[in-house]
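User: Show me an example of a complex going from sequences to structure tokens.

Assistant: Sure. Here are the input components:
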Amino acid sequence: MTSPAIELKGISKAFGPVQANKDISISVMPGTIHGIIGENGAGKSTLMSILYGFYKADAGEVFISGQKTEIPDSQAAIAAGIGMVFQHFKLVENFTVLENIILGAEDGGLLKPSLAKARKTLLELEQEYDLKVDPDAIIEEIGVGMQQRVEILKALYRQANILILDEPTGVLTPAEADQLFRILGRLKEEGKTIILITHKLREIMDITDTVSVMRRGEMTATVKTSETSPEHLAELMVGRKVLLQVDKVPATPGDVVLDIQNLRVVDEQKVERVKGINLQVRAGEILGIAGVAGNGQSELLEVLGGYANATGTITLNGQPIDLSGKHSDGRSRRERGIAHVPEDRQREGLIMDFAAWENTAFGYHRDPRYQSGILMNNAAIRIDTQEKMDRFDVRPPHPHLAAKNFSGGNQQKIVLAREIERNPDLLLVGQPTRGVDIGAIEFIHQQIVALRDQGKAILLVSVELEEILSLADRVAVMFDGQIMGERQSKETDEKELGLLMAGVSS
Amino acid sequence: MNFLALFDLTVLDTTLRLAVPLLLACLAGLFSERAGIFDIGLEGKMLAAAFFSAAIAAVSGNVWLGLLAGIGASLVLSAVHGLASITFRGNQLISGVAINFLAAGMTVLIAQDWFSQGGRTPSLTDGGRFGPITLPFADAFSAVPVVGPIYAELISGHSILVYVALLCVPGTWYILFRTRFGLRLRAVGENPAAVDTAGVSVVGLRFVAVGICGILCGIAGAYLATGLQAGFVKDMTAGRGFIALAALIFAKWRPWHALWATLLFGYLQAIALRPDIIEGALGFKVQVQLLDALPYILTVVILAGFVGKAIPPRAGGEPYVKER
């Protein structure tokens, strides 16, 4: 009987009082794809960092092909045949593909022979695994899909037999993700062992042979993929039954609330980010903006939120909005009834070092309820925050705790509570569930749908197609600053939207 | 008006000599900053090196011992900077400022205690200085029109450190762009995480870079006190470390451009010494004070970003912390 390509026995790791990994054991056979799934903070990344020599485990053993192996640093991991493709690529942006590939694996003191050898090896790898890249391209000039291929090639160049991929599809279009999976399938055929870390159930179901579920630092189950279902895996992840579909009644759109005509945004580098788009959002409907990150959605939200200038016309309930003058700021927007849950809550939505109650007042600190003469009425803000926290099930419900001490999902609830509770006419929501665990996603989606059912207009921007399809009533796809098309979400699917996201107009 | 007079051979000769400390400091900064460690302590390291090279040369009568002492002093300060900004992940600017203050105060204090000459070292005599070297055939060639005087006066007749500095330019270029070490050095200044995950030590690379920076600053300081002048005087670097930083930005962190940039600054310093030539060329008198201020004015202009967009190494100034 062949021994497992990689086997972990009783791995434990604690950071202070937090037990990130508790007695983890898995074993992965060679030539298989093994998925590891779990919520944020379940300990997946810690486990992989231990495997790649970033952390030293407090206890436990690692066996590679039956041999007990110590991995004190990345050099040892590479020597043991482990290759890692990180969620955030570890590439030098202004180097060529070839330079990135040889970095740290050069053959001698001079570059020329190393580069020549790498060029030759690259051609062989390209043919063997159907991984096409231009060796002389500069990293920052190629797309993310290509950059990811460079990361895979980096690992293969170092003769990795075990490839670990951490959330590899987060930045890819559906078409690019499919291509990645084809490559992984090819690698598997050639006998490589692949460990895929993800929080997307669909990917696990599509491509893995076996799957392990992690929850709160523990490995709760390891099952054959063919013998499980997404619902079962979700339940194992969260520890209770979860609704994967958003439960909502069909929308009953009313009058046009937001009307955008010929909107153009030019950024500081004089690059046109939004190229003349037209959009309408009606009362009582959710318009989802789909698209790969960086195609103008962020700029659209910034303009609507009042912190970027633009040309064109936008009206709210028939009244024009100031796009570049004195009233083009967040305060004026809020006074007009636009609430904004920004895309990057840690940078734009919260001040991480400030307490939850202080964060709750931001943007609304002129509220008469928060005033006491020329001073802020801090006691009133704290009481108000406490009520909001209770209503939105923020845990732990302590207004005095700094924002950074809450988990991603609870931080998002604090922002959402602040914005929704003002009863806005229009709610802007960017990436509502990025870095949020499944349990909290369910709650956040319910809140957004509830607001819609009160007859409010909602503009949702998300890079998660699944989220757009289940939450939005209507979908507009942005590509390269333009709207590629609009669809009713019931009448479209991921494939059609994926093509639009890649700039293919139907 | 006679603009050609502005490029009088003696002025160009002085340009080269004044550019050398700037060039060495600029290349020192280049190594450090390309590895992601900002170093505003070039000034302090040069000053310390100038003092110790002059002091040891004066005491021993051997200029080579002086040079070694200068490099040693500069390396000690580099080690402090490395410890503060790499090992303890402190703020690189604050560490640099501290080194500048430390050098400015300690050099004068030690000089006064040691030599009792008002914070200077004794004037260096022949064995304690780097003398001029006459290149082969300089005399024979000097009769050849145009090329002859340029060879004899401009190229020949400098101290050894001038030629070392000039050789450092292609040397730096080669190391940076043609060797494994150079590739890793540039990578660690752009994205240390890429170097770390490739199994190469970020800390090790950065310490080597800071060490090279210390050696080059040491040579620059020693040249000031034992080549350009004959002994140490208080604050003799006169902002050259900062001018070198401006030149580094002007050169966009590239070795050959660093040469041209420092020659430009050297020229401005050289021409300021010859108001008579300027008056002859332009036909009117320019205030000496204005001429003296020119290199500093250019520095401010460059640092304010008026000379096109200069993109510093992307990880510059940031201590590297492994992410979870």
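The lines above are the inputs; the final block is the predicted structure for all two components together. The CA atoms of residues 261 and 278 of chain A lie 5 Å apart.
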